[in-house]
């Protein structure tokens, strides 16, 4: 039997869209954008199972709950990715590359900034858990089989006390802002669109003027040729016609 | 999302080229006849009229 520790008092310490199971389990399941049978996943042996839709506050909450329970040694990423946010990709990038200047290195999500977690918390997260990536899997049987496989590999509790970090709920506003769009950004985008439209209009007008010039020049050329042909015909044919008459 | 954005950019680019070509074409078609008339008139003024006046024809 591997060594187990007590998680932080009142674990899970951060509230969110998840179900808690056996706190002694070594597996946490993050279903990203999918809503699966989280209670069923917990019953299958997961310590905690829930969704994570944003690449900033969502990830912070997951990490806060993971590092406050040293028994969790595996984070199973499954479910579908949330378009634009790419919380799954950002989560895996965070574990692999960490954070630089508040930004997750290598994350492709819209706003992958970690603001509420100190560097030690991220380092602890990287050391404590192993990420198991089965993203785009929503099949419960596959997820449960993976949980069983990971539980069989349980290395025991992480040799450190639970780390408690506070995820400020003020960040919730930021999460909402992520779901919507910054109004200033929208205004700038609108202005840029208007500028682009005007440039396109001017560009078309210029093209039309150039077209007119080219058309006129070609017309003059045709007119000259036609006039010269008429002149030559008059020059050659008219005397012969007069002679004939 | 990125793929859709790229597709949108490509469509926009093609639409711009199409609009420009159309405008150029319509400009050429618009002023071709006028140009032809100018050319013909030039021949009349500079060749035919002097030739007639000088009794060349």
The first-to-last residue Cα distance of chain B is: 76 Å
How much helicity do the residues of chain A have?
Answer: 40-55%
Low-confidence stretches of chain B: none
* H/E element sequence of chain A: EEHEHEHEEHEHHH
How many strands of chain A?
7
Structural class of chain A, by secondary structure, is alpha/beta
Give the distance, in angstroms, between the N- and C-terminal Cα atoms of chain A.
129 Å
The coarse silhouette of chain A is rod-shaped
List segments of chain A where confidence is low: pLDDT < 50 over at least 5 consecutive residues.
171-178
- The overall pLDDT average of chain A reads 85
The Rg value of chain B, from CA coordinates, equals 24 Å
Average residue-wise pLDDT of chain B = 85
Structural class of the secondary structure composition of chain B? mainly alpha
Write the layout of secondary structure elements.
The complex is a heterodimer of chains A (245) and B (57).
Chain A: E1 18-20, E2 27-30, H1 38-43, E3 48-50, H2 57-67, E4 74-77, H3 87-97, E5 99-100, E6 103-104, H4 119-128, E7 130-133, H5 140-152, H6 171-179, H7 183-244
Parallel strand pairs in A: 2-3, 2-4, 4-7
Antiparallel strand pairs in A: 1-3, 5-6
Helix pairs in contact in A: 2-4
Chain B: H1 2-53
Task: Supply database-style keywords.
heterodimer; A: 245 residues; alpha/beta; two-stranded antiparallel sheet; 7 strands; B: 57 residues; mainly alpha
What does this structure look like?
The complex is a heterodimer of chains A (245) and B (57). Chain A is of the alpha/beta class and 245 residues long. Chain A is 50% helix and 9% strand. The longest helix of chain A is centred in the C-terminal third of the chain and has 62 residues, at 183-244. Chain A is rod-shaped. With 57 residues, chain B is mainly alpha-helical. Chain B is built from 1 helix and no strands. Chain B is rod-shaped. At the A-B interface, helix 7 of A face helix 1 of B.
């Amino acid at each position: 039997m591997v060594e187990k520790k007590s998680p932080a008092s009142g674990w899970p310490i951060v509230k969110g869209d998840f179900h808690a199971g056996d706190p002694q389990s070594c597996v946490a399941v993050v279903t990203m954008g999918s809503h699966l049978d989280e209670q069923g996943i917990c019953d299958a042996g997961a310590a905690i199972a829930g969704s994570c839709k944003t690449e900033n506050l969502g990830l912070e909450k997951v990490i806060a709950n993971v590092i406050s329970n040293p028994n969790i040694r595996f984070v199973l990423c499954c479910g579908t990715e949330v378009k634009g946010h790419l919380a799954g990709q950002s989560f895996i990038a965070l574990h692999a590359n960490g954070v630089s200047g508040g930004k997750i290195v290598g994350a492709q999500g819209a706003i992958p900034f970690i603001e509420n977690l100190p560097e030690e918390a991220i380092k602890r997260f990287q050391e404590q858990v192993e990420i198991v990536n089965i993203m785009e899997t929503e099949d419960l049987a596959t997820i449960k089989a993976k949980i069983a496989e990971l539980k069989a590999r349980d290395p025991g509790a992480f040799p450190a006390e639970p780390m408690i970090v506070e995820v400020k709920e003020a960040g919730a506003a930021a999460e909402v802002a992520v779901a919507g769009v910054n109004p200033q950004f929208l205004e700038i985008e609108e202005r840029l669109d208007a500028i682009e439209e005007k440039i396109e209009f001017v560009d078309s007008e210029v093209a039309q003027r150039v077209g007119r010039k080219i058309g006129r020049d070609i017309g003059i050329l045709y007119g000259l040729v036609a006039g010269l042909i008429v002149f030559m015909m008059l020059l050659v044919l008219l005397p012969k016609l007069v002679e004939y008459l | 999302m990125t793929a859709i954005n790229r597709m949108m950019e490509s469509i926009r680019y093609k639409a711009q080229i199409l609009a420009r070509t159309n405008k150029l074409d319509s400009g050429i078609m618009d002023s071709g006849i006028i140009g032809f008339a100018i050319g013909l008139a030039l021949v009349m003024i500079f060749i035919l009229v002097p030739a007639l006046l000088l009794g060349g024809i």
